[in-house]
Amino acid sequence: MSVEANELIEPVIGLIGGSGLYDIEGLEDKEWRRVETPWGAPSDALLFGRLDGVRCVFLPRHGRGHPIPPSELNYRANISAMKQSGVTDIVSLSAVGSLKEELPPGHFVVIDQFIDRTFAREKSFFGTGLVAHVSVADPLCPRIGDVLETSARGLGLPVTRGGTYIVMEGPQFSTRAESNLYRSWGCSVVGMTNMPEAKLAREAEICYATVAMVTDYDCWREGHDAVTVEEVVGVMMSNAENARNLIRAVIPVLGQGRDPCWAGCDRALEHAVMTAPAARDPEMVSRLTVIAGRVLDRT
Ligand SMILES: CSC[C@H]1O[C@H](OP(=O)(O)O)[C@H](O)[C@@H]1O
Ligand SMILES: Nc1ncnc2[nH]cnc12
What we know:
Elements: E1 13-17, E2 28-33, E3 46-51, E4 54-60, H1 75-84, E5 89-98, E6 108-110, E7 113-116, H2 142-154, E8 159-161, E9 164-167, H3 176-184, E10 189-191, H4 194-203, E11 207-216, H5 229-254, H6 282-287, H7 289-296
Parallel strand pairs: 1-4, 1-5, 5-11, 6-8, 7-9, 9-10
Antiparallel strand pairs: 2-3, 3-4, 5-10, 6-11
Helix pairs in contact: 1-4, 2-5
The structure holds the ligand CSC[C@H]1O[C@H](OP(=O)(O)O)[C@H](O)[C@@H]1O and adenine.
């Protein structure tokens, strides 16, 4: 997709559904389609359709029925499949634990920062033979964040704008010492999936924002039981209903024709590629065409 000046973008909205969100209701012309990528298969087929005329692409992050754990997700294939499907804007929906008293279960947080503590995942599309460094100083798209916040408030949902999501490797939940450490770092919520997803979306020049849906207080709270899957699943059900309403509200807004993103997420690769054309591995270049073709074509 081109983002030259004065060209109006017709957005395609990508939705990545987390725990408890394995389908999207109300899509017209819906069709599940498998998408192959240079990085292998995504978590599942993607659901293509339209909502109020806006093209949407939905992917259940863990696959339908939740067979894939956070560390085994093929994050590169998931983001590449979105890019190959023309997605310009991703809304990520995620279950998280709360690290702050004022963010109770049921609360939605439109986060604005991450701390990435994952260590067993492929984190970049680039590598030997084609090196690039994008900025993730502000890893979430504030333009989408504005729409999410306004729509959530309009629906009367309990929502906080801003907050840091610490991404842990999992699959076990945190120790009490870890949970308290994350609190001492000022983190708002803890989860296992949004990294490297957000970094890869940035490399793919896709605007990306997250609605972190609180399901539990993790294990830091004195006198309260530590989080269990039973607790998470229970709260997830009511969160999922609110998430569906929020999705219905944001898609018509995000789907309007627009200029390139004012925050620049869709131009992240502009000055990011380090490897001189003559030093590039042709196989890497060919593999990366779907992600970085926009900039590789001209350098
Ligand atoms: C049963 S809670 C653990 C699971 O839920 C979250 O995933 P997602 O972001 O896809 O909703 C969390 O990070 C864990 O993967
Ligand atoms: N407490 C928690 N820790 C990590 N991931 C979570 N997802 C939902 N609750 C969580």
